Every structure is written in C-alpha cells, then in structure tokens.
Description:
Oligomer: heterodimer
Distance between the termini of chain B: 28 Å
Radius of gyration of chain A: 11 Å
Number of strands of chain A: 4
Helix content of chain B: 40-55%
Number of strands of chain B: 17
CATH topology of chain A: Histidine-containing Protein, Chain: A
Number of helices of chain A: 3
Shape of chain B: globular
CATH topology of the largest domain in chain B: TIM Barrel
Shape of chain A: globular
Amino acid sequence: MVSKEFTINDELGMHMRPASLLSQMAAKYQSNVTVKYNGKDFNAKSVMLLMTALIKYGSVIEVVCDGPDEEEALAAIGEFIDSGMGD
Amino acid sequence: MYKGIAASRGIGIGTICRIIEQDLSFETKIVTDTDAEKARFQKAIDDFVEETYAMAEEVKKNIGPKESEILLGHAVMISDPSMSGEMFSMIDAGQCAEAALTAVCDMFYGIFSTMDDEMMRQRASDIADVKVSILKKLLGIEDVDISKVPEGTVLVCKDLTPSMTSQIVKENVAGIITEVGGPTSHSAILARALEIPAVLSVPGIVDLVADKDTAIVDGTAGDVFINPEISVLSDYVIKREDFNRKKEELKKFKGKETLTADGDKLEIFCNIGTPKDAKKAMECDGEGVGLFRSEFLFMDNTHLPTEEEQFEAYKEALETMQGKTVIIRTLDIGGDKDIPYMDFEKEENPFLGFRAVRYCLAHTDMYKTQLRAITRASAFGKAKIMVPLVTTVDEVRAVKKLVEEIKDELRKEGIPFDENIEVGCMTETAASAAIADFLAKEADFFSIGTNDLTGYTMAVDRGNAKVAYLYSAFQPAVLRSIKQIIVAAKEAGIPVGMCGEAAADPLMIPLLMSFGLDEYSVNPVLVLTARCIISKWTKAEADALAEKVMAMDNVEDVVAALKAAAKE
C-alpha cells in the first residue's frame, strides 16, 4: 500500500469535470484507489462518491493506492492532481 | 402577468407548446430471471449513453463545448460503479430494473440536493434527468420531439432538462417558461447560450396555460403574459424590436477599438474575481483587466495562500489575457470578513479600521509573499500592482519599497520578472481625492473605485436603508472628487482608470470622457455596451454637458440633466 498527500489547486474544488477525469484515471488500474478527506474514505473510481466528498479548493487530500500496480497508479494520479486536474 | 426569474435576456412572443411530464409510474416486481432483467437494463443504459453522446456532439457543434460537457457528464454518471454497479447488484438480488434505478438515483439525489455547495446541488437535477431518461427507455415511453416544434413556439415545462434543451432548434423557439430552475441552472445557461428569452421559476405555470395560448416572455424583466390584451402585445412587439436592434448594434462593436465620436482611442477593461474570469473577459472583448480581485485566494482557502499558489493564479490570468494589461489589486479585506487563519479582530467600525493596505503593511511577511508572486508572474504578461484604500503618500512609498526589495531578491536568484512593473493607487477614499496631486507624483497609475469612493465621500453605508438615498456616484461631492482625481493624474502624466460600477453607467460615461478618463473597467458582459456609448459622444459634447452638470448643486438636477442628454 502506498499513499501521498495532495493539495487541490482547482478553484472550483472537486467538481464534476475533475472528479470524472480522476475516476476514469483511477479505473485504469487494478489497485484499489481511495481518497481520504475529512476523516472519510471515498472510492476514487466512482465519480459520484468523489463529488459527494465536497472537496474544496486548497484542501489537502490523501490518496491511497493498494494493489499490484499501486506505484504507477499513485504516480499518475499525483501528476494529474498537481497539474490542476485537467482544468 | 406572472413573475419569475429573468434567466435569459430578450423578448419572445409566440404560441405555447406545453411539455407535460409523462406518467412514469411502474409496478415493482420481484424478478426471477435476473440475467434477462440485467440484459434489459443494460440495453436501456446503452441506448441512453449512445443517444447522449450523439446529442452532446450536436450541442458541441451548435452551442459550445462547455454545454456539451453537461450531457457527457450524464453518460459518465450512469456508467459509474456506484450508480449502475449498485443497480446491477440490486437486480441480482431480485429487484426489477425500474426499482433499482429509482432507488440508487433517489439516494444520490438526496445527497446532492442537500449539499452546501451551489454547484453540487446542480448535480441533483442531472441525476433526476438521468433517472427519467432511462426510466422512459425501460417503460418504452417516447418523448415529445422538441426539435420538431414549429417556428414561434414558446416552450412551457416544469423544468427544462439538458437533454430537452439540446433538441431545441434556436430559430423555432421564441421563448422558454419553466416552473423551477434558477439563474445559474443548466437551463438558464443553455438558454443564454442559445440567446432564447427565458423566465424560470414561475409557480404552477404548466397548469395555468393551454397549448396554442399566446405568450409574451420578457427574459430581461422576468415577466410572463398569457393571452395578453392587444395593447400589451403591441407594446411588447415594439420592445422586442428595440431589444433586437440594440443587440445587433452591439455586435458591430465586437473586435473593434474603443473610439469616441471624434476618433480618440479609449480602453474598456474588465473586472474579474478569479483567473477563470479572464477567459470571460477575453470572450467579451475586454482590452485588459482593470481590476483582478485577489481576495478569492484568501477567502476560499483553509490556509494563507503560498507564493506558489498565488503565482499560478496570477500567471494563469496573465497568460489568458495574452499580453494585455492585468491590474492585480492586493488583498483588500479587514475585520468584516471572518477568515479563521488570519488574525482579524472584531472591530466596532471595520470599514474605517485595520484593513486592506493598512493590514498588509503591518504584516509585511504575508504582503511580500503576495507582491513577490505578482512580480514573478509579471514575466508572463503585463501585470500591474494596485494598492487599495490608500489614504497617505507614505503607504504608496512603503509598497514601492517592498517591491524594490523583491526585485533585488529576484535578480539575485535569477528569476525573471518585468523590470518596469507599475505600482498604482486605487483611489477610493476621500483622502485620496484630496491629495490626488501628491499621490500622482508617487504612483504609476490611478484607478478610481467609485463604489467605496462614494461611500467614504458621502459617509454612507449603502447597506443601511435609512441613509442609502445619499449613496450615489452622481452626488456633486463625488463627481468633484472623481474629477479632481482624473485631473491630478492628467497633470502628472499618469494613466487613470475607473473600476467601479459607474464606469459602465451610460449617464456617467460622458462626464468621465470630459474629465479625461483613459480606461473604463467594467463587468465583462458590459464591454460592448460601454464601447457603444463612448462611440456616440464627441469631446466637445461631453465637455458642454460636464460644464453644465458640474455647476449643479444637487443630485436630482444632475441625474435629470444627464438623463435628458443621454444618447440611445
């Protein structure tokens, strides 16, 4: 299991578009991908659950990847978040 | 007459076509052949996704990529493991497809509709839209084909869903009336993109009208008339012509320079609140950004924004503006704003208290972070620093000294920046008007903030209903202050702009032209309007009007004279 913290730098927070891109990216990996925020766990492969997390601009989230391709998954997702989540 | 929310400007007159909600009730059954039921459900989803993609493609072509993303979102939502995945598990457990779909959609609808975030609450209507569309597929119900309505149709429905909007043929739909939806709902956004007049949130309208009724939709005022009298109808036919003529006229100003009737060049800039708004400024033909409020970085945040976070935001706005000027106002808040991580104390009188540049100069670490971020971003466009709430020359000197220190640091570190980055004054206090000549010697530019200038000059809190009558930028005291600031800037040879609401006011513009204002910074949607008004006045006409008005000793006379002289 690997994990890392990230700061959300999209002004609108985790809204539909970034959540949808993030979930599609997470779904490409076999590993379980979980976003930890505000003391709760959210399945990152689900755009709906990611949106229910109401992650705001400037928040810090922890991404946890667990599975055979966990390193690749974390690297790819990390790069996606740091690059502004496609916005 | 019925009142609703004015969601898309313009006047539409036409014949009503009601889009009535269909009976989507179903019998909940226990399913034994779960594989067959899952296949039936999968088929409904596949059909829905296929149609949605086709529709999104149409919308992208006819309306725009942003609007088509709303529809693509629907396809993404239903394909989500916690949506269809959950539904398939329920079918496996013996539920019928309709019941599984309804249960999961309703659960998410419940979550999203109660969220403390406007954007997320909008997602609830997306979920409802997805549910209804797939339910119709399962029940074999065909929709009214909106794409086939005849020319001059006014659509009346409970809610205009994105899937309905995407079928609209712009030439045939004269107006839209709904029972629900707000100014930021998808229906409103799409109606505006299609330039169809729309009034939303008219209670019970679907049951109050019949097909073939005549309707007037006033999307500017939010009014709806059903089977109006001839006199009302003819009034609105004239209003409609008027509106359309003005709209056409404004289009002529798109992509043009801002010129007075004499051919003198002025500039229309935009006021923005986030880097994303810069796109809007460009789309609306703004010639620069006259006010980029930096507060969003501090207010929607859990911590003091780092230099890097700020740098990225300023850089984004500068890059979007492609070399056009971006005037960034440094932090302008105080004790009236509760920002947990900043040590603002509750004050008796926050608007006269420890705020804006006063707070910033007492917290130089924080302020230098912001100034450094702006100075670094200046390598990516034409950035200018604007200092709010200036009341003394020393404040400007202090900020300039900090900027010089930062430049030295950056030079030593080999980080690029614009050596000529300007530091200007937001002139918005009575003091700044009184010492405008002193300030003009120290500042690189002025920008008049008329909202606060009016408040501070008239000693009026505009939110206080008992004294709000005094709050007007046309008060002789305010007009004199504005003139004094502009004249001082001209004498010192520095540029002067205005970033308050008054800069777009058709009555104020001729006065500002006469005083010599160079740059008018307005809400992006008002760029063309302001440019159109400026084009109608010569300097001589503006001067004659200003001379007359500046001799008047009360606001009523001033406004009456300006209205009488206004040019349509």
